What we know:
alpha/beta; 11 helices; 7-stranded mixed β-sheet; single chain
Amino acid sequence: MTASTNEYPTRAYGATAPDSGVGPMQITRRGLRHDDVLIEISHCGICHSDLHSARNDWGFTTYPIVPGHEIVGTVSAVGESVTRHKVGDRVAIGCMVDSCLECAHCEAGYEQSCLDGGMTGTYNGKDRRDGSLTFGGYSERIVAREEFVLKVPEGMPMAEAAPLLCAGITSYSPLKTWKVGPGSKVAVAGLGGLGHMGVKLAAAMGAEVTVLSRSESKRADAEKLGAHAFLNTEDKAAMKARRGYFDMVLNTIPVRHDVTPYLHILKINGVQVLVGMIDMMPEMHTGVFLGRKVLTGSGIGGLAETQEMLDFCAEKGILPDIEVIAMQDVQTAYERMEASDIKYRFVIDMESLRENA
């Protein structure tokens, strides 16, 4: 297929109101601009952000909304100026589809923190050129600017590649930023979609990895995922014995909680990075910082770092643990995700959307 100014009618799943649930809808993808790529989506991962956005839990959803920002597929057409991709390429899109690419942050590789109006989200965002609403990967195809389309490494399974575009990069970026490597002692708090990737990635980087959880049932899973130790956070004596031990706590816990205990187990100059909790923190005593402990947060990574992460995972054979589902089962998947009934990431097979059209 060659570049076209014609729009693309597209089957999708989305929400029309906070209480509508996610169901079938028809959307229209724009015709190709000169720098656009058209992608036939093969798989899309499901993120907690999808659920919160569909229900307007954060208060800034614009309806209708088509979630999905862990997208993989195959290029089916390109604009006349596109040089990065060609028809037939295996490609991926993460949480953003545009930025200014000219500000200091963009030029430094932090497109996710664009100074000119912020990044354009893959869904529930506003197109920078025509102001239209962006729709995500719960759909059969997507059109995006070529710079924001990444390469899926050769040999990497498409279904497993999908969650790397959010869960993978969200875990990878802080590990790289804080120079985790051989000799590092890393604790991963929480063992869900983000946490299980944090364990795999930190171990592959050469770190000694400990899983922190109050659930003893996670001990066996932690070992299977490559953790070297398990620390039950309800065991006060065990937590006290690890004071001043870790270089990093990668905190993937998605709900509001007290972060103070995780600061106590850090070394001087150690860092706790919040990647899961999007909420107000409980009050904490600032005296804990007298030991030069760092508390910070991290989101996704920039384009180059995300491609680096994909290539690293391909080289090391790191893949998320997934359960592939049909598009028609996404509402059930949301319910199971809220109940933590998934090890560890749902991925939608988009062929199911086409077969049941």
